[in-house]
Structures are given as structure tokens and as C-alpha cells.
């Protein structure tokens, strides 16, 4: 276990979360795994952080909005990420997915960097 509060950036969180195995049954299972990993790492985070009435990323970790996507269309995800990126509380974006198609994301939206963590081979 890591000691003390951890600094968060999208690339650091991608590296850290990528070191865990997740149940990929559905988004809720992945979210539970991420929450457990963040707690183990002593990260400060909000679940379903309310950015606005319509915008609630799955996690907000020190300015990094984490969105978990197991399925769905890329265009819909891009619109959602663009809305998140429009908020001052969001400095970076991290998409956690089990789908390779999400790697087609741009490197940034509204001037805010995007990282993508693909959870391949993480089922157990």
C-alpha cells in the first residue's frame, strides 16, 4: 500500500489503476474496483462528482475526471468528455474502458489532456 495522500495526474492514475485487475462484467463492477484501488492508494476523490446538473464523471481525483465506459458510441463519449472539459474543476480527463475503440480519442479537448486506460486481459 502507498503511504500518504497521492498526487494525481491522468497519466499517473492510468499507470496506477492499470496495475490492478478488474471484473469487467459491467461499468458498476469496474467502478467498484477503481474505488477500491483509489482507497488503497490513499487518493482523495469524489464519486459521481457534480460538475453541473447534467455532468457527473464517475470519479474526480484532484482535477482528473475519470469516466468508465464499457460500451457505447465514441461520438457520445466525446460529447460527454467535452462537457466535462468545459468545467474549471476538471484539469485532465481519463477514460477507463475495456474497448480498444476508445484509443481513437484525441489527445485533448478544450485544451485539457485526455488519457485512455484499456483494461485488456483484466478479467478474473
Fold topology:
Blueprint: H1 10-17, H2 27-40, E1 46-47, E2 59-61, E3 64-69, H3 74-85, E4 92-97, E5 108-109, E6 112-118
Parallel strand pairs: 3-4, 4-6
Antiparallel strand pairs: 1-2, 2-3, 5-6
Describe the structure in your own words.
The mean pLDDT is 88. Helix content is 27%, strand content 21%. It has one domain. Strand 5 (108-109) and strand 6 (112-118) form a beta hairpin. It is globular. A six-stranded mixed beta sheet has the order 1-2-3-4-6-5. The protein has three helices and six strands; from the N terminus they run ααβββαβββ. The chain has helices at residues 10-17, 27-40, 74-85; strands at residues 46-47, 59-61, 64-69, 92-97, 108-109, 112-118. The chain is of the alpha/beta class and 124 residues long. It starts with 9 loop residues before the first helix and ends in a 6-residue tail after the last strand.
Structural key phrases:
124 residues; alpha/beta; 27% helix; 21% strand
Rg of Cα set: 13 Å
Low-confidence stretches: none
Task: Work out the strand percent.
Answer: 15-25%
Number of helical regions: 3
Domain unit count? 1
Give me the count of strands: 6
Structural class: alpha/beta
What sort of overall outline do the alpha carbons produce when their principal axes are compared? globular
- Which sheet architecture does the biggest sheet show? 6 strands, mixed
Q: What strand line-up does the widest sheet have?
A: 1-2-3-4-6-5
Helical coverage, percent range: 25-40%
What's the rounded overall pLDDT mean? 88
Give the end-to-end Cα distance, rounded to a whole number of Å: 21 Å
SSE topology string = HHEEEHEEE
Amino acid at each position: 500500500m502507498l503511504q500518504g495522500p497521492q498526487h494525481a495526474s491522468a497519466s499517473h492514475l492510468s499507470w496506477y489503476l492499470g496495475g490492478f485487475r478488474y471484473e469487467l462484467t459491467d461499468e458498476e463492477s469496474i467502478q467498484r474496483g477503481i474505488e477500491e484501488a483509489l482507497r488503497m492508494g490513499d487518493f482523495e476523490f469524489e464519486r459521481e462528482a457534480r460538475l453541473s446538473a447534467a455532468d457527473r464523471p464517475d470519479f474526480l481525483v484532484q482535477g482528473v475526471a475519470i469516466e468508465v465506459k464499457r460500451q457505447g458510441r465514441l461520438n457520445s463519449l466525446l460529447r460527454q468528455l467535452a462537457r466535462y472539459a468545459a468545467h474549471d474543476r476538471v484539469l485532465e480527463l481519463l477514460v477507463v474502458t475495456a474497448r480498444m475503440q476508445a484509443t481513437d480519442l484525441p489527445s485533448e479537448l478544450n485544451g485539457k489532456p485526455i488519457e485512455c486506460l484499456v483494461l485488456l486481459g483484466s478479467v478474473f
